[in-house]
Specification:
Layout (H helix, E strand, L loop, with lengths): L6 E3 L2 E3 L3 E3 L8 H9 L4 E3 L3 E2 H5 L3 H6 L9 E6 L3 H14 L3 E6 L4 H5 L10 H14 L4 E8 L7 H11 L3 E8 L10 H10 L4 E4 L5 H9 L4 E4 L9 H9 L9 H19 L1 H9 L2 H5 L5 H8 L5 H12 L1
Parallel strand pairs: 3-4, 3-11, 4-6, 5-6, 6-7, 7-8, 8-9, 9-10, 10-11
Antiparallel strand pairs: 1-2
Helix pairs in contact: 1-11, 4-6, 6-7, 7-8, 11-12, 11-15
Length: 322
């Protein structure tokens, strides 16, 4: 039987080896806190531009903020030069991050054009310099998040994992799809297993994880931990559900009404954190995940996107819940 277990990244001890993935526009402080309550052993913040931090961008600076309620938390940074990466890592450490994570796997064109994200997989010498710069600039663990390949012609997972280990990274997260796949298709478990065999540092498997069976598959392939992204959106209790299922315990039932009550609470926390306009706008991005399962879900979502005030949102969702 596969069990979830305590886990260490460098000197940082985690209660278990299930990790919330960094997701742009989603894994902000209110959502990270919710996922820790839902059983995650570690939560990761949405990636922050090292370049923007260097030039004092206020929005990017706010993204580094860490609540006392959300430890342990990993702050992900991205960039293309050593100086700004070093500064960003130091800023994350000062803000209270427990881990700094360097992104070298994002396939978004805007990120890639800036010389960051998955294009770093093409230049391993540069990637090593950036990772080493981050590691040397902070006292907390530094990790690397990348992918198993750029395309289906050459698999790089094992080599990049070894690069991370040689640079002194505390762990490496591998998305088990090629960059060209974005977020679709089956993860390549064999490529993950090859990377796990190539290194002694922990390998965290990521990509397409939505249930306990996938977690079991990744762990049996040799992964020390498993990272969950979209599977947690609308279902922040997925971590505890997986823990219980793999331990042979009954999984708690989550009614649609209960999920919607939690979503309303998250919206209220977003409004407290960002202010009404931004808080509601951010909440809209994930409405479909939470409202699914209700009669007339599409109509409810359509009505929600037209609302601008918290009292109106409360009224709509209360009506649905009742």
């Amino acid at each position: 039987m596969t069990h979830i277990r305590p886990f260490c990244i460098g000197k940082l001890s985690l209660k278990n080896n299930l990790v919330l993935a960094p997701m742009a526009g989603i894994t902000d402080s209110p959502f990270r806190i919710l996922c820790l309550k839902g059983g995650a052993g570690l939560v990761c913040a949405e990636m922050v531009s090292a370049h923007a931090l260097h030039y004092g961008n206020a929005k990017s600076g706010r993204m580094l903020q860490v609540s006392p309620k959300e430890h342990p938390v990993s702050m992900q940074i991205f960039g293309s030069d050593e100086e700004t990466i070093s500064q960003a890592a130091q800023n994350a450490e000062k803000a209270g991050a427990d881990i700094v994570d360097l992104n070298a796997g994002c396939p978004v064109k805007k990120i890639n054009k800036a010389g960051a994200g998955c294009v770093l997989m093409k230049d391993e010498t540069k990637l090593a310099r950036l990772l080493t710069a981050a590691i040397k600039s902070v006292k907390i663990p530094v990790t690397l998040k990348t992918r198993i390949a750029l395309n289906h012609k050459e698999f790089l997972g094992a080599r990049l994992a070894k690069l991370a280990e040689d640079c002194g990274a505390a762990a490496v997260t591998l998305h088990a799809r090629a960059a060209v796949d974005m977020h679709s298709g089956e993860p390549d478990v064999e490529a993950l297993a090859n990377a796990c065999q190539a290194v002694k540092i922990p390998v965290i498997g990521n990509g397409g994880v939505t249930n306990a069976a996938r977690v079991k598959e990744f762990l049996e392939a040799g992964c020390a931990g498993v990272m969950i992204g979209r599977g947690a959106v609308g279902n922040p209790f997925i971590f505890q559900d997986i823990i219980d299922e793999l331990a042979g315990r009954p999984v708690q039932a989550h009614t649609a009404q209960k999920r919607l009550e939690i979503y309303l609470k998250l919206i209220e926390e977003n409004v407290d954190y960002y202010g009404e306009r931004i808080g509601i706008n951010r909440s809209r991005k994930i409405a479909g995940y939470w409202i699914s399962g209700f009669p007339n879900a599409a109509a409810v979502r359509g009505e929600f996107v037209r609302l601008d005030t918290l009292p109106d949102v409360r009224a709509l969702l209360r009506q649905v819940i009742s």
